[in-house]
Amino acid sequence: MAAKKHPALSAAQLAGVARLFAVLSEPSRLVLLQALHAGPLTVNEMVEASGLKQANVSKQLAILHDSHLVRRERDGNSIRYEIADPMVFSLCNLVCSKMVRDAQCAMAMFHPEI
Amino acid sequence: MAAKKHPALSAAQLAGVARLFAVLSEPSRLVLLQALHAGPLTVNEMVEASGLKQANVSKQLAILHDSHLVRRERDGNSIRYEIADPMVFSLCNLVCSKMVRDAQCAMAMFHPEI
DNA sequence: TCGTTATATGAACATATATTCATATAGTAT
DNA sequence: ATACTATATGAATATATGTTCATATAACGA
Description:
Two copies of one chain form a homodimer. By secondary structure, chain A is α+β, with helices and mostly antiparallel strands. The first copy, chain A, contains five helices and three strands, in the order ααβααββα.
C-alpha cells in the first residue's frame, strides 16, 4: 500500500528543502554544528576546535546563519554563535541511525549467523 | 544548559552524514523521491512524471540507489524503483516544518498583530 | 536473428562552491 | 588617535557534479 499523507510539494518548495539539505551536506559545517552542540562558541574558539582556517569558519558560519540554523550575538570584541534550531540534530540522528541500519545490513551479508 | 547526549562523530562519520545530505540536496532527486512516495514506478514513468530527461533520471536514480534510499527490481523489460528507506520522508518533513516555522517568524516581523 | 523498447553509461560542458590568501571592518584598550 | 584583536569579505583557484547527447547494454517480440 502506497503512503500518501502529504500533498506534493511545488518546485519552489522542493528547492527550499534541497537548499537546506545542501547546507548540511558539507563536513566542515557539520563539524561546526557539532562543536556548537556543547554550547555557544566564538569564531576563534571554533577555529581552534575545528582546525579550519578562520576565513573558512566565518564563511561556513555565515551560510549556517543564512539558513537560520545558528544565531549570533556580539560579546565585546568577539561574536558568539549558538544553535538556533535544534532540529538539525534530529536530522543528523535520523541519518546516523540509517547508516547504522545499512551497516548492520551489510554486515549480515558476510556474517548471517550473528 | 548545553545538551550533550551523543558522543562526537568522527570525521569519517561526519563525511558519511554529509554525503547522505548531499544526496538529498538536489531538487531533481527530491522530485523522484516524491514521485515514488505514491508507490513504485518504472524509469519511464518517472521520466514522464518529472519532465526530466531519461539519462538524467537514470543517473539520479543510481545515486539514490547507491545511498540505499531506493530499491530496484526488474519487471520484464523495465526496471521498477521503489522507496527503500521511508526515513527520507521523515527528514523532509522535519525540514518542511522548519521552513514553516521560519516563514511564520519572518511573517511576524511585518505583522506582529497576527 | 532482427528490430524495438527500456535502461544505463561515457564524454563534454556548464555551474556551483569549498578553500585559501589578502584585506577590510569593527570593537577594545592604551 | 594608534595599536591590537576578532570577524567578515573579495578575488582566485580547484574541485565536484548536474545536465545533455550519443551510444551501449539488456530484455522482449516477430
